[in-house]
Structures are given as C-alpha cells and as structure tokens.
Amino acid sequence: MSGHRVVRLWAVVLGVLLGASVQASTVDRMLESLASTQSLVAEFTQTTVSKSARSRQASGAFAISKPGLLRWEVKKPYPQLQVLNGKEFWMFDPDLAQASVRPIEAANLTGIAALLLNTNNLSRDQLMARYEFAELGARDGLEWVRVIPRNPEPGIASLVVGVDADAMMQRFEIHDQLGQVTRVVLSRVLKNTVLDPKLFQFTPPAGVSVLRAP
Predict the structure, then answer these.
(1) Domain that holds residue 164
(2) Whole-angstrom Cα distance, residue 201 to residue 214?
(3) CB contact at 8 A, 40 and 189
(4) 127 within a domain of the structure (yes/no)
C-alpha cells in the first residue's frame, strides 16, 4: 500500500473516530437543552389511561421560569391551576371555589417538574446520581429517553421524554406505580422568551376557601 493511500486511510479512520466522539448522545443533548432553558411556555393536551378506568383527556398551558417558577393550568374539561412562585405552591379549583397552599419545601415536586426546574441547579453528575437515563430510540419522528428516579418518588415510576432534532422536548409520558400512564403532547413551544412575572403569582379570588398546609 502506498504512503499516500495509508495517509488517506488514516485520515478517514481518524475522521470517523472523532465524529463518533463528538456526537453527543440523546441523553446528553436533552440535558444540555434543558440546562440552557431559562424559560419555557407551551400548550398541552394530555390523555390519562389506566387498567381500571376510562381514559381521561385534558388540555391547557404551562410556563416555567428558572429558578423555581412554574404555572400549570388545565383549561378543559375542568379548570384547575397550579402555581409555584418560588416560596409557595398553590393549587386552585375554580369549580369548587377551593385553594390550597403549602411551603415550597413541602411541594415535593417530582417527574417532569423536578427535571425541568433542577437542570440548572444540579450538575450532570448530580442528575445522573438522582435519575437513571436510558435511550429508547426513535418513534413518531422523535428520539425517546426513559428517566427513572433512583429513589422512589410519589406518583411516578418512570418518565419517558420525546425530543426533536434540536433536543427540544415535544412529548412526555408519566408512568405511575399502579400502571396508570399520562401522555402529554406539547404544541406552540417557546424557549427563553420574556415572561410576565404575574404568570407566577396567585391571589385567591373573593369567596374562595383556602387550606394552608403546615
């Protein structure tokens, strides 16, 4: 083999090896995307299915702003609102004219909320220590990742996240310990836009009973 052919061969091999080394995994790209997300707003539709009940559907919108701000609003079929304002966690049911509030330390955020809000506070090693990540391959035009808490979390056995070519989250599924699955499809997703601080404030309307948890 001539010297020129050897050089060309090694150039090809080196290019393949370097390309493989710099190509980030889906897990890494997802975590990098979440870590670079300072704010996120989207509309959602969700379907919850279980072995013992008929499927239930809901739709609404959510917003997050780091650090520690979350608004999750179900608009149909029955309005409900959850607001995390950095100090307290509010839940409001307009139909029942009831609201509950608890300190943020007692909110016990799990699943997608914990993952979204913690990717700035925790290093990659800390996230890996808290969650087990597994790549599931492609489905429905998205790359899927399973996230399993290493320590049990109430209401969630695993989380399955679908991300697009830009590693932006487009769908997720919440699997609980009883076999119930909630599938959420996002639309009109906007990342790192300026959000009105009032989105993350809540004042109970007049006549609403408020339950304050210790």
Answers:
(1) 35-212
(2) 20
(3) yes
(4) yes
Rounded CA separation 58/48 (Å): 9
The sign of the CA dihedral 168, 169, 171, 175 is positive
188: CATH: 2.50.20.10
Question: How far apart are the C-alpha atoms of 40 and 194, rounded to whole Å?
Answer: 9
Query: Is 7 part of a structural domain of the chain?
Result: no
Across the 214 residues of the chain, what is the mean pLDDT of every consecutive 10-residue run?
43 36 74 89 94 89 90 95 91 95 72 69 80 92 92 84 93 89 94 94 94 83
Domain count, the chain: 1
- pLDDT tens-place string over residues 44-73: 999 999 888 789 999 999 999 988 899 999
Tens digit of each residue's pLDDT (9 = 90 or more) over 85-107: 988 999 999 999 999 998 877 65
User: Global pTM?
Assistant: 0.80
Is the residue at 74 inside a domain? yes
In a domain, 26, yes or no: no
The beta strand positions in the chain, using DSSP E, are 39-49, 56-65, 69-76, 80-85, 88-93, 98-103, 131-139, 142-149, 158-163, 169-175, 181-191, 209-212
